[in-house]
Amino acid sequence: MSRRILFILHNLHGGGAERMLVRLAGSLCTEHRVTLLTLTEGGVNEALLAPGVRRVCLGSPRSARALPALARFLRSERFDAILAALTHVNVLAIGAAALAGSLRRLHVSERNAFSLDRRVNPARSVRAAYALAPWLYRLLPNPVICVSQGVALDLLRHPALRPGDLAVADNPVLEDDYRQRSLPPPTHPWLRDRQGPVLVAVGRLAPQKGFDVLVEALARLPKQVRLVIFGEGPQRAALEQQARRLDVAERLDLPGYCADPQAEIAAADGFVLSSRFEGSPNALVEALATGVPVVATDCPYGPAEILQQGRVAPLVPVGDVPALAQALLHLLNSDPQAGRDLRQQAVVRFTRRTAARSYLRLLLPEGGP
Question: Measuring CA to CA, which of 62, 249, 293, 328 is 20 to 30 A from 144?
């Protein structure tokens, strides 16, 4: 039976959480009536919305001011299940659902390492949301949905939360036929016109992603090796300055946000995740799905789970420039086909169909409320 499901996000800008919720909404709209609501305007991921997903925007100038409008919307329309994502949005959704009498239908999700992410958000309102969120989560009738076991265990360290307050569901990162899919040719000139080894990384240009460590590692690799980092963010100028200082500016390119980086990753010699922390790194899953060799930091949380504690691909200590450079050098000197099947098989649980089933079991248990 078709049910009404609502997704609540801040906006549809280029973050992993936004992209995954758009994909999940698209996966569920074939059988259910799905609405995706954002508190504020805009975002590049709007172009990825499936035609069957109803789009609502409250148009608030700031998320914190959207509480009255969200409460009115929840009172005016009755949904069988509501899913909010990201901590500050979760807190707002809890308040609005309480005012609208919809708490028993509300589910919230945590997409990052809570204890670490709360330290890097400078806005006072966001910090207040992080302080309040675990105590509100304890009162919810439905468990908080976490994107990895590591995220769940991290939340459990907070004194407010108990094991029964949390559940885990994987992100819908991949198409169901990802192993048979033909990818288009890459668009980046270094990958189209190969003149030497090229490594690829993907993520927001922010300290969390550890790209400063990766640029240091690049300086230790042979001079013919080049690095492309797809993403945008506040650290762009600092990374460009660092590359000039280390004399690798001609070997580093920052082409900006890439809506679908898999074709670029598949054409590279290797993919690298250099993060200081994660929740469940979607770019790593996408890279493994292509079969390309990868190296990742053993950061909290996600890479060790995805890479089966290093059995699927190498894990290096966070922030260790020599270890990262050595692992990348070994990758470049190894047979790229070795372990290809193992890498692709390791991410089968991140397909749309599998992830959608996991979320439906949580959102609509026993047929829903």
Answer: 62
Residue that the structure tokens 């980092």 belong to: 229
Q: Positive or negative, the Cα torsion across 148, 268, 232, 298?
A: positive
* For residue 75, pLDDT beyond 80: yes
- Domain ranges within the chain, ordered by starting residue: 4-172+351-367, 189-348
In terms of Cβ atoms closer than 10 Å to its own Cβ (0-12, 13-18, 19+), residue 283 is buried
Among residues 261, 189, 252, 251, the alpha carbon closest in space to that of 231 is found at 261
Question: How far is the C-alpha of 191 from the C-alpha of 189, rounded, in Å?
Answer: 5
What pTM was computed for the model?
A: 0.93
Helices 124-139, 87-100: inter-axial angle, 10-degree rounding: 60
Q: Is 62 helix (H, G, I), strand (E, B) or coil?
A: coil
pLDDT tens profile 29-38: 999 999 999 9
CATH class of domain segment(s) 189-348: alpha beta
- Confirm whether 4-172+351-367 and 189-348 share one CATH topology: yes
- The pLDDT tens digits for 292-303 are 999 999 999 999
Res. 130: pLDDT tops 50: yes
Contacts of 72 (CB under 8 A, 6+ apart): 100
Determine contact, residues 163/156, Cβ cutoff 8 Å: yes
Helix (H) or strand (E) run with residue 198 in it? strand 198-202
What pLDDT score does 369 carry?
42
Coil, helix or strand for 308? helix
| CA R_g for the chain | 21
Distance CA 187, CA 70 (A): 41
User: Does pLDDT of 368 surpass 80?
Assistant: no
Assigned CATH class of 4-172+351-367:
alpha beta
d(CA 213, CA 274) in angstroms, rounded, equals: 7
Residue range 99-118: mean pLDDT, rounded: 95
Q: How far is CA 365 from CA 107, 140, 144, 269, 362, in A?
A: 12, 15, 14, 44, 6
The SS3 of residue 167 is strand
